[in-house]
Amino acid sequence: MKIFAHTRWDAAPVLAAVAHLAFDVYLIVGFESRPLWLSAVLGCLYAVSISWNINSISHNFIHTPYFKPRWMNYAFSLLESVAIGFSQTYYHWVHMRHHSGNSDRPDDKGETIDMLSIYRHGRNGEPENVWSYTFLSFFRDSLGDIHKAIARRRPFDAKWGRFELFFFLGLAALALIYDWKAVLFFVPFYYLGNCLSSLNGYYEHLHGDPDEPIAWGVSSHKPFYNWLWFGNGYHAEHHYRPKTHWTKLPTLHEQIKDEQEKAGTHVISTCHALGFMAKENRQSELSHES
Q: What confidence score (pLDDT) does residue 284 get?
C-alpha cells in the first residue's frame, strides 16, 4: 500500500513532527530533574519550535497532505494539534482564508478577506506596526467563528477540529495533574512561540504587493533556512503556486525568477523571523519615505 501521497521525502517533516511532540513531553516529564536555567533555555527552544512547526510542517501539510490514506491525514492532524497546541483543522481554515486574501488591504468597510493580513489593523492603507502584530495576533481569532465557518461546509471537519482542541486541552489538564509547576512555567513560552509565528508571518508579506500575484509574498532563498524549515523561505513562489510541493519550490523559483524580478518581488537576505534585521527591508522603508 502506498502511504505517502506525493513523495517519500515527506517522511522528513512527519518524523520531525513526532520529534517535536516527544520534545514537548520531555519538557514536562523532565522538569523536576532539571535546573530552572536549563528549563528556561529549553523553553526558548520550545517557543522557536512552535513557530518552526506552524510555518513548515503544519503549513506544508495544509497544502499537500502527506499521506494517501485519509485516516492517516486525520491522525497526523491530531498529532500536530497536540504538538503545536492548537487545532490543525482550525488552522487549516484560517490559513486558506490567508490565501484567499493574500494579505489584502482593507476594503471600503475596513475589512480584509485575509484574517492574518498585516494591513487588517493598520492605518491609512499601511501595514500594522510589527510589534503590535506580533504580540496581539494571538488574541484576535474567535474560535467560535472559525468553528461555525467550517461547519457550514464541512460539518465533520468542524467536529474533528473541536475534538483536536479538546484533546489537546485534556492532555494539558493531565500534564497539570502530573506537574502543575512545569505547565505554568512553559505557558509564557507557548505564548512566545505563537508570537514568533506571527513575527514570521509579518515579514513573509512586508513589502509584498497585494495587487500582484507573483509578488504577493516575500521570499528568502537562504539554503540552510529552507532546509530546516522545509522550503518556507520560498514564500512568494508558494503564494503564486500554493499547490507546489515544498520539495519543488526551488525549481519553481528558477522557472519564474525573471518574471519575479520584473514584478519587483521582494526578497530578503535573512530568514523571515529576522526580517527586522534585513537590509532590504530598511532600504525599502527609506525608499518609501523619500
A: 73
